[in-house]
């Protein structure tokens, strides 16, 4: 039977086609993007952390060699994010009551943000805890186990938002600054991230 543990599912199986190289292996603040995101998720209290890999799995796994996480390879990564969500949830142990879905290219998601989401879940027992960035819903998102079958059945872009809309009345919303939403898609994003004009988001 599920306990009260909240697992983390870190999606790191993207193809980085617009970046031109694996963005998860880019360096920022002295570590790779994927290592930083995994480390902050763990510091926020997820247990265990499942990292879903796709292309360059061996290199990404090597970047995580000193991080206490479990990696799984999504052989269907080319079909999109939904397949990675399914692969990650399938690897979560039965003891977990909920899972936080995170993206490995969102370097401004902090341990404090993850920890506050988990605390809200434990306080309210809401089946869904959503992140809102000045009106934009995006990961991390916490799903209680009773929503996993619905989430795993979803396909295509925006299906997570559809689930959130269906369960809006029973969900909790965490509000974060829009600056924390920044992700990495193209080389210009990385240039902005590493410039002196863009400082790391340090939490609320």
Number of strands: 9
Which sequence of strands runs across the widest sheet? 5-4-1-6-8-7-9
Q: What sort of overall outline do the alpha carbons produce when their principal axes are compared?
A: globular
Indicate the proportion of strand residues. Answer: 15-25%
Q: What structural category arises from helix and sheet content?
A: alpha/beta
Please outline the major beta sheet.
Answer: 7 strands, mixed
Explained architecture:
This protein is α/β, with parallel strands linked by helices. It has one domain: Spore Coat Polysaccharide Biosynthesis Protein SpsA, Chain A, CATH 3.90.550.10. The protein has helices at residues 33-43, 57-63, 81-90, 111-124, 148-152, 159-166, 187-194; strands at 5-12, 27-28, 31-32, 49-53, 70-73, 96-103, 128-133, 136-144, 172-176. The longest helix has 14 residues, at 111-124. The N and C termini lie far apart (35 Å).
Keywords:
204 residues; alpha/beta; Spore Coat Polysaccharide Biosynthesis Protein SpsA, Chain A; two-stranded antiparallel sheet; 31% helix; disordered C terminus
Write the layout of secondary structure elements.
Layout: E1 5-12, E2 27-28, E3 31-32, H1 33-43, E4 49-53, H2 57-63, E5 70-73, H3 81-90, E6 96-103, H4 111-124, E7 128-133, E8 136-144, H5 148-152, H6 159-166, E9 172-176, H7 187-194
Parallel strand pairs: 1-4, 1-6, 4-5, 7-9
Antiparallel strand pairs: 2-3, 6-8, 7-8
